[in-house]
């Protein structure tokens, strides 16, 4: 069955689905989003794109941006970043301080908030204009200049971001943050505020299915080995305390954000992105999980 | 490069390697094992076997047996087992009670001790002679009658198994163990005491690379979907608190045991098993991890 | 105001009080107790006794017995018991395993279940017939032969005592239990099953107000220093996770039990005991706390 | 034996004692203090003062100031402060975030850092010039105008206080901090930077031995009941994770600080203060604990 048909069918099946859960509400900017938005897009290595619903509408990618930041850090700094950050799944909820304190300020992985804050700290130490560099990096991966920070989201996050401030202060107390706390939080909130569409996101993750190489320009972003390792990290740590469920049901490496987006990667084949803002209790898009599970069942396309 | 050559090269490279770590010592039977034992074996779907070193010598498979028990439980009882057990990675060390108490007696996954104890409890409720049934199931998977429990290991485990007794009592206090505590522990210790060779183990996991079907007899052990889900569970939970490292470096679903064995599965291709009894701090075979990492690098064969 | 008047007034004020909470229900024997039972008794150093309500009715003293066991252990074995047990308050609920695991099997204090189990283990190692010895010790302290174990409570506790079994197994795994697990649990459950009246209990704790000496016979049970230290331990650890509230509101050393009894000691003056089986969320007698708070307010008799 | 003689004897016995432990080193200002400083002072209700060693030398009172802040909050705001703060001992080390997160931003008691930060927040909401008010309050209690903040300590604390910043941010994320984070930390650090002598401290705590009334002016600072409750809180929570040891060995309500001071109160009799900057592993003055234990043994003066 062709991708477009499957995606259209899934869109029609679920577009009026009664969803259990809530839109993210910790900042006003996210709370305002229309709960009924629903988009799907798939990009394959043949540069074909298949979309349905609101797949061309921008949304706040939030934690999905952590994959871009990790990739940039590995590209610019290399494997030594793993001295300051782990690669193990985190059993605790994504905003927990317990584990971080127990493990002396070393975050378990780069996709929990604490881990992404360390990545920001690393980027600030290494790059001259880290915000500009990060945004340009995402634009190159998406082959698209029309990608921006949302300044309202940035200021909202700053106003309510006491948990993140607690994390970064705790890590600083353990010596695992080198730069000024405010500049680390500033880069972090800018990163999370990036807005993209399903179509742009699925294109921008395509190099992970292509051994680290941009399919259209053949530019090598990261090595084969690094690309596979980022995929492995997404598989194990990409969905807060629901990584097991995601591997079990969807069976692909992926990353979700509280804006309601999920990106999943099938090595050597395609990248698929869904957007539906209503979240389950674990903070992942309710409909996104459902659609991706059904998609990989229909296409028998899990990596396992 | 042919598998036999790669395996021979890795064996020669590492057979005299100075290893950091210790043989498992919590029971005398495991402590007695020669630290220098080292075997590798790969079975592919063409029924070819490639071995090196002590690949035909029996060792205590310990926690690797948990994969057999989970598979038998899914085959006999079905998906409803997931009401009593999770599929999420466990951040804590494999013998921790903290998480189990916090999560009201529901173990995080079937590969931590508590989870395997629940699986044993489920098998006892369902099967008439669970020990016999389990052993026969393993024999069928390995196509080999010469597989046995080690009674000395069973009694040693019983004598020193106070942590497991604590787990099972705690879960019973939460109502998540239905049978008599002694019979649950008895099945659990028998299961862990199974002895197999690298060659036998790599053959017995081959159906996981073949969508749940025994390659030689075409017998369907579990469905495609269940087979993929067990692979996903191994990927996320198969190596205690080192699952992330294993995914990151080896990139294949797998399961380790404190006897020093590790089995790894490449869907659609092969199953490989290593044995070296010296463990790292996380309780996984030091040399096994090294060899498997290098094997998947050389063959560029990670699933990611 | 004379004690009898205060006690009568408090009894009348509270005997028909609508209580929030529940009778202990983890074993049928405790669940059966009439929730309306309510007794108060005070013994002073002049050997005068002042009672009201059901103060001459036997009830299950449960954890109050831990004070007797600790005293006997200090008398028979001495200060070296503190190598295997702490004197710090426990922040966690009384049935928590978390702290015990974190602190390598050393219980925080002798009044949490794990601590009392270690005391039982110490008594078994030291005494020939520990159950007989313990019961006779309590009889001497109460100057009364009519004090007994309740065998039904013992078997009920054994049938449902999986949490205690988890504790003792965990401590055994850390080497902090020397004897057979079943014999430790047997002594523990016998100890908890002792039945006494408010009058008997207030008499049996009187030596703690008298520097360790039985007022009627002048027999020295423990030294002045040991007596004061047990009082201090009751003050800091006598009420599970409500020790602070008890010190804050009542201001006397004391010990509660899930049978609904509370004993409180005023050094150099008196011992008072209340009984009302309905417990608050923290496992302490709701009415007992209220009455004792009001009693020490009226008599301005806190030790602080 | 008269107090002066006991104090002189203890001073001579311990002044050249080889101490195990270290001076607080988390800020340079504390690290610089001479480890050999050693002072003792006792004030009784007859307005007599008995000192030895460096009892007239100022030192950083640090956490001892939390008792002043709590008293001022109870005086100015009343019992409703207990809605935002508990009175239970904290099992965890004094800088732990675990419990605070678990208990939704409500600190266990007013003497852990998080609790004192909430007290500061309450004072800021209530008082116009909280720093001035607090300092004047301490001066009145000590009957002495020559008491000051140490501005160098304040800026040192701010420079290195990432753990406290983590605490206050975490509580703000739970809604338990109402004011600006910087102003809360500013008051907190000023409070901790107060410098006093043993003589001044022992005088300033004297009203706790006198039912809340300043002995020299008969001014009522707090009610009898509040005075007793603060004593109870000091007894249960005054020494981080060593409150049990302090009750057990010293047997008096008290409060310690990382500057090496300890104040202890004997209701109706006296207040005693020791200073020796070398701390044990739990963060309490090594020599102070020893001297106070011996003092209450010699005078048989525990409250238990």
Strands, helices and their partners?
The structure is a homotetramer of 304-residue chains.
Chain A: H1 3-14, E1 22-23, H2 28-31, E2 39-44, E3 49-53, E4 59-60, H3 65-76, H4 98-102, H5 113-126, H6 130-142, H7 151-160, H8 162-173, H9 181-192, E5 195-196, H10 198-204, H11 224-237, H12 243-249, E6 254-256, E7 261-266, E8 270-275, E9 278-279, H13 286-298
Antiparallel strand pairs in A: 1-9, 2-3, 2-8, 4-5, 6-7, 7-8
- Oligomeric form: homotetramer
* Radius of gyration of chain A (Å): 18 Å
Using a beta-carbon cutoff below 8 angstroms, give the protein chain pair with the largest interface and the number of residues from each chain: A-B, 35 and 35 residues
Count of individual beta strands of chain A: 9
Shape of chain A: globular
Quick summary of this structure?
Chain A has helices at residues 3-14, 28-31, 65-76, 98-102, 113-126, 130-142, 151-160, 162-173, 181-192, 198-204, 224-237, 243-249, 286-298; strands at residues 22-23, 39-44, 49-53, 59-60, 195-196, 254-256, 261-266, 270-275, 278-279. Chain A has 304 residues and is of the alpha+beta class.
Your description of this structure?
- The structure is a homotetramer of 304-residue chains.
- In chain A, strand 2 and strand 3 (49-53) form a beta hairpin.
- The two termini of chain A are 21 Å apart.
- The first copy, chain A, has a five-stranded antiparallel beta sheet, sandwiched between helices. In chain A, strands 1-9 form a two-stranded antiparallel ribbon.
- With 304 residues, chain A is an alpha+beta fold.
- Chain A is globular, with a radius of gyration of 18 Å.
- Chain A has 13 helices and nine strands.
- The A-B interface holds A 86-92, 99, 108-109, 224-225, 228-229, 231-233, 235-237, 241-245, 247-248, 251, 253, 267, 297, 300, 302-304 and B 86-92, 99, 108-109, 224-225, 228-229, 231-233, 235-237, 241-245, 247-248, 251, 253, 267, 297, 300, 302-304.
């Amino acid at each position: 069955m062709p991708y477009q048909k499957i995606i259209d069918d899934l869109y029609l099946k679920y577009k009026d689905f009664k969803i259990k859960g809530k839109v993210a509400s910790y900042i006003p900017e996210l709370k305002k989003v229309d709960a009924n938005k629903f988009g799907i897009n798939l990009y394959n290595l043949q540069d074909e794109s298949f979309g349905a619903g609101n797949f061309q509408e921008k949304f706040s990618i939030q934690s999905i941006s952590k994959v871009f930041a990790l990739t940039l850090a590995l590209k610019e700094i290399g494997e030594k970043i793993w001295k300051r950050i782990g690669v193990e799944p985190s059993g605790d909820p994504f905003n927990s301080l317990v584990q971080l304190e127990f493990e002396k300020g070393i975050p378990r992985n780069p996709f929990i908030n604490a881990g992404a804050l360390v990545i920001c700290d690393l980027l600030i130490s290494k790059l001259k204009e880290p915000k500009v560099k990060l945004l340009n990096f995402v634009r190159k991966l998406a082959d698209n200049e029309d990608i921006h920070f949302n300044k309202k989201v940035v200021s909202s996050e700053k106003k309510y971001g006491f948990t993140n401030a607690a994390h970064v202060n705790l890590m600083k107390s353990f010596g695992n943050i080198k730069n000024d706390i405010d500049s680390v939080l500033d880069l972090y909130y800018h990163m999370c505020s990036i807005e993209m569409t399903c179509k742009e996101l699925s294109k921008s993750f395509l190099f992970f299915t292509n051994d680290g190489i941009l399919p259209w320009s053949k530019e090598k972003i990261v090595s084969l080995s690094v690309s596979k390792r980022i995929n492995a990290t997404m598989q194990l740590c990409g969905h807060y305390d629901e990584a097991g469920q995601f591997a079990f049901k969807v069976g692909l490496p992926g990353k979700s954000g509280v804006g309601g987006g999920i990106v999943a990667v099938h090595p050597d084949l395609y990248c698929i992105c869904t957007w539906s803002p209503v979240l389950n209790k674990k903070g992942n898009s309710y409909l996104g999980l459902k659609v991706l599970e059904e998609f990989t069942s229909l296409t028998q396309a899990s990596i396992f």
